[in-house]
Structure to design on (114 residues):
């Protein structure tokens, strides 16, 4: 839904992990090191990078962060609690729609203990 509502002229940066068909990405920028990843994504040189691999060597999760991302909620239980509190405070006919995606929600203080 969020992608459908974005400005059609905008771009969305992504990191793709695909060793099987590198030739299809011929005009993309290849990331070759942690420092290259930090630089290309605009993070500080000392930004933390977390990569979780599956047993077969595939990337399951990649996260990068520094002081600029300290406000992100990386704790699943905390995110779940905040979202549940938000939903508990909505009307019974609440639904996620395009207006909701466009709304500016101030999450701090939106629910108790957030």
């Amino acid at each position: 839904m969020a992608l459908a509502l974005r400005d059609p002229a905008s771009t969305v940066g992504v990191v793709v992990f695909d060793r099987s068909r590198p030739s299809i990405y011929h005009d993309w920028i290849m990331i070759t090191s942690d420092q290259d990843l930090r630089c290309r994504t605009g993070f500080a040189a000392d930004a933390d990078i977390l990569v979780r691999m599956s047993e077969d060597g595939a990337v399951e999760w990649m996260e990068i962060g520094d002081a600029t991302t300290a406000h992100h909620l990386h704790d699943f239980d905390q995110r779940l609690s905040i979202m549940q509190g938000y939903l508990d405070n909505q009307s019974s006919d609440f639904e996620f729609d395009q207006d909701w995606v466009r709304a500016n929600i101030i999450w701090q203080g939106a629910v108790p203990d957030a």
Observations:
- The first strand starts at residue 48 and ends at 53.
- The two ends are 25 Å apart (CA to CA).
- Residues 18 and 24 are 10 Å apart (CA to CA).
